[in-house]
Structures are given as structure tokens and as C-alpha cells.
Amino acid sequence: MLFSKPTTEQAPPAPPADRAARSQRSHRKEAELRGRIKQFTEAKLRAESESCEMEIEKARLAGEVVKAGPGHTWQRTRFDTLVAELEHRGNLVAELERQIGEAEEAIAALTPTPAQLQQRQEWQREFAALATERLRMDRENDELIDTLREALIERDTLTGAMAALARELDLELAYGGLDEARFSKLAASLPVGQISAVERWHNWFVVGGAGAGYAVLDAELMVRETLSSPGLHKFGERLRLREEEASELLRDDRPASKDAPAWHCLPPSIMPSADFEALAAEAEAEGVSVREKLAWRQHERAISRTPPAPRGDGSGGGGNRLGGR
User: Is the dihedral of CA 306, 311, 317, 323 positive or negative?
Assistant: First the structure.
């Protein structure tokens, strides 16, 4: 049967203990919420600081209002305005506290309960079982493709023998007269060497731990999530990446921004783990941090790439900018 139900003869491997408890989307949402909390908290502190200053001013004006006596004075007007502003600041602080509380509740809701975590682990095990069964089927399919390819090659061999006899028989046959192209499109469409790529993906996404080891150089780095990792990493953390993923992050010629000069480039986002360990040892021996060593490297790289400033000929006339004589 080409499409069969997952077999139960051999149980799939149990998922590792470090299966991702939350998705990348969940972590991104938490980071967004924490950013809001930071903004709300800063605004709240500003409002509270302004309220303190206003309270002092209010107390001073209260004394002046008493001295000025009854009647409509500028002190009374200023005092009433200040009271209204204090009330507005109080409402603003209350609203910011409400929004901070809502954001904190939303963050708490992102943390799975024991029951939710157990359900997620069951789904992860089911996912791993389905992926393992698909890998088994892919191996069988790859063998079927090889068998089919060999059969089509054998057909071409037979067609060639038929064509040779047709010439001996002096048969006038145009192309297609021997039905030789019947399976040409099928033969051309058959993939070659797919199973190795399939196994690499399976080991990376499902099993985890596949690929070369790297250390993160960015303050925060987001890569593609897998069944075992949400793909969010901080400076100094170790991770494993496939070659096609690592090649882009290892580049030191990525533009710093859309409008930046071509020689203003971002530093690599990752570094091979062995190189990072060696750099950390150098930094320790010099009494500096790894971040300082990396910053100095980036500074030297930027200097080496920055083109020299144009120099005049000393005459003040600027000379021929095209370099002609």
C-alpha cells in the first residue's frame, strides 16, 4: 500500500526533555508585551514625578491664595489650573497602571499550565511519530523512484535496440514513430538523492541537535524554530545550525541599513563555538569582556573598509574631479 497508516511495530523515540515548551510566536508576543510594560512604566514614572513637582507648587500657591484674600486673583486661577492638571495626572497614572496590569496578565497567560504543557508534549510526541513514519515512507519512496528510474532506463535501452532493427528493416520512422518519448517527461521529473536532504531536515527539525555548533554574537537572535527549540537566543548562547542557515549569519558584509554607505556593514551574528571559546580566553587574559573584544574587532573592520577621504592638491581649486589632465 502506497499510503499506509503509521505502524505500531516500533514506537517512535521519546522526545528529548528539552522540547520547546512554548512557540516562537509566544516568545515574540511576550517580548512585545514587556516592551509595552517598559514604555508604560517610564510614562508612569514621568507622570508621578511631574505630580510631585505640581504638589509642591500647589502647596506654595495655596499659601499665596490665602495671603491674596478673597476675589479672583491670578494665584487662584493658577491654583485651580494646577488642581485640574493634578487630577489629569492622577487619571493618567491610574490608566497606565491598568495597562501595565493587563500586559502582565497577558504574559502570565502565555506561560503554559502543567495541563497545557502535558498536552503540548503529547502533541510533540505525536508530531515526532508522524514525522518518523513519514521518514520511513520517504525512504521507501526513494527506493521506488530508483526502481522506476532503472525501469525507464531499461525501456530506453529496448527502444534503442528496436530503432537499430528498424534501420535494418529500412523502416521510415519519424521521431515518435517508436513511441520512444512516452515516458520522457516522467523520467526528467524524477528527483535524485532526495533522501539525504530529507534525513537532514528530520534530524534538524524533529530530533534536534543536528548541524554545526555556533555561539550567538547578537544581543538577541531569532532563527527558524523547530520542534525542540523556539529559535530565540541571546548573546553567548550556543546553538546548532544547518549550513544554509549559518552561511547568512556568518557574513560580515550585510548592509547596516537601507540607506547606509556600502562599507557600513553589520558584524556576523554568530561565530563557530571553538572560535568563541578562543576569543573568550583572549579576553580573560587581557582583562576585558568578550563584548569589548568583539566591538574592537568591528571597529577595526569598519576602519579597514572605510574609503579614504578625498584629498585636494593644495591649490584650493579642487582640481579635475574626473582625474583627467
Answer: negative
